[in-house]
Amino acid sequence: MVNSLKDTTTLSNGVKMPWLGLGVWKLKDDGETERTVLSAIEAGYRSIDTAAVYANEEGVGAAIRNSGIARDDLFITTKVWNSEQGYESSLAAFETSRKKLGIDVVDLLLIHWPVKGKYTETWRALEKLYRDGYVRAIGVSNFHIHHLNDVFVSGEIKPMVNQVEYHPLLSQQELRQFCQTNGIQLEAWSPLMQGNLDQPSLAEIGAKYGKSPAQVVLRWDLQNGVVTIPKSTKPGRLKENADIFDFALTQEDMEQINALNRNQRFGADPDNFNF
């Protein structure tokens, strides 16, 4: 059972990763990112998820430096963007990210999307960075089972994390099971369905515990063994998203939420994207 914001899952290589973190997609690098990350760290968050394409790694880096928290106590994730994929270009892209973040070692580096004809080469670059000690863990984002199988065949190290769109309307049971079987930690982006939380059953379940639909969904993620990174810029909402450790959903609640699945994506399908 996950009981606090400091609780971690242990990745396949032994690295500990917080179950709940902050995503910074769409946060601007005009001070907003630094302010938000500092608020989150103050509220107890220790995991921050950014990406090269978000164009706010410098803001995350400023917050890391100004937080007063030891670097080793924070877990920082970034990602290689699609246009930089390939072996040499991924190594160069990582170096750029590392400089923007202002840190020597990144805790988790992900391939952002499975770019056809490129992601296996990109994976080789991530393996090199991992072996050389520049990253503590490596993984992928938005990979279906067949993409993962490609990496298993062409690579030498299995991804430690697969970050995908995951929420009650898209519960990806087959992928979750596959990742579990292969020692890959599943992580949810857009866990709160980009605000589309108006499902009566979520409100009903929340009312039993004095919790909001958002809190119910985040608790469901954790009880399904899925790391989750909700995004918010509001200090109050950051605290609310983290206030999910004083209740537990019953098996019946979990099944009721599982039943909401309709394979509905708010983002692109990893088999069909054009960016």
Automatic annotation (TrEMBL):
<keyword id="KW-0560">Oxidoreductase</keyword>
<protein>
    <submittedName>
        <fullName>Aldo/keto reductase</fullName>
    </submittedName>
</protein>
<feature type="domain" description="NADP-dependent oxidoreductase">
    <location>
        <begin position="20"/>
        <end position="261"/>
    </location>
</feature>
<dbReference type="InterPro" id="IPR044500">
    <property type="entry name" value="AKR5G"/>
</dbReference>
<dbReference type="Pfam" id="PF00248">
    <property type="entry name" value="Aldo_ket_red"/>
</dbReference>
<feature type="active site" description="Proton donor">
    <location>
        <position position="54"/>
    </location>
</feature>
<dbReference type="InterPro" id="IPR018170">
    <property type="entry name" value="Aldo/ket_reductase_CS"/>
</dbReference>
<dbReference type="GO" id="GO:0016616">
    <property type="term" value="F:oxidoreductase activity, acting on the CH-OH group of donors, NAD or NADP as acceptor"/>
</dbReference>
<feature type="site" description="Lowers pKa of active site Tyr">
    <location>
        <position position="79"/>
    </location>
</feature>
<keyword id="KW-0521">NADP</keyword>
<dbReference type="InterPro" id="IPR020471">
    <property type="entry name" value="AKR"/>
</dbReference>
<dbReference type="InterPro" id="IPR023210">
    <property type="entry name" value="NADP_OxRdtase_dom"/>
</dbReference>
<dbReference type="InterPro" id="IPR036812">
    <property type="entry name" value="NAD(P)_OxRdtase_dom_sf"/>
</dbReference>
<comment type="similarity">
    <text>Belongs to the aldo/keto reductase family.</text>
</comment>
<feature type="binding site">
    <location>
        <position position="112"/>
    </location>
    <ligand>
        <name>substrate</name>
    </ligand>
</feature>
